[in-house]
Specification:
The N terminus and C terminus are likely disordered. By secondary structure, this protein is an alpha+beta fold. Helix 3 runs antiparallel to helix 4. It has 7 helices and 12 strands. The protein has a 6-stranded antiparallel β-sheet, with helices on one face. The longest helix is centred in the last third of the chain and has 50 residues.
Length: about 300
Amino acid sequence: MQKSIQKNDSIIFRPGTVIVGKWNRHRYLVKRKIGAGMIGTVYLCQINKRLVALKVSEQAMSLTTEVNVLKSLKKVQVQDHRLGPFLIDVDDVEMPNGHTYSFYVMEYIHGRSMESFVRQHGSEWIGVFMIQLLDQLEQLHQSGWVFGDFKNDNLLVTSSPPTVRFIDVGGTTKIGRSIKEYSEFYDRAYWHLGTREATPNYDLFALVMVVLAIYYPKKFKRTTNSQQLIFQKLAAVPEIRLFRPILQKAIVGKYQTAKAMKNEVIEVMMKQQTRKTARKNSKITYGLEAFLVLVLSGIYYLSLYFIF
């Protein structure tokens, strides 16, 4: 990928623009802008009737790093899904003003935010999504990476069946290095509850904030006692009462692996399901007993009728 000529130029492609790769000559029709971050801008494009996501940037080296992440995750799968979107193309584009920018093209993942999904389908999905995300984080960490910029904007829920997918690997960082891209609300260093070193429990802290952001879409600011504030916010959401002890442990860095946290989430959900089943069976048993009492009472009084 060729280095950008000038880093201060804004890269704007209007709907209807055709981006032609300098080297591979693939033509991408811009439909609309779908996101922007520290590294670059992402556009929804079309090629041969197929929708794709194209990320273009002035920061060629940073974009190359993202491409390398996607390549390294190519063979890592969680169930039927790869971590992150599929990489399709890597190229440069020459602008009319003579500047050259780098871009890569990836799978366009169509879905909806976790917040809107949970609002429509209920908080029962929180545990399911936590397990899915922890499953993906476990595989990512074992591959030597930390997601880094782990936030709701970088997650989408796809359908059939509902599955949470990572849609942007821009903040993905090698374990042991310094997190290169982050968002304050999800960053433990912002809350003075840890460092910005790329460790598995950095992502696990962010996962708690992902859950909280579903119920606090306007976010909230840190205080002098951030841990107490976050614990209070967790306690104020009855829908996640079941997972509160687990989420608190993740905030203070008690889990060293995503697998350990995932196992506790599964255990809590299984116990909850067992209790529900027991209550259901208890109601059925009580109903049968009441029915038998009525039947036997009827037989008793009927026998008295015939005797007398």
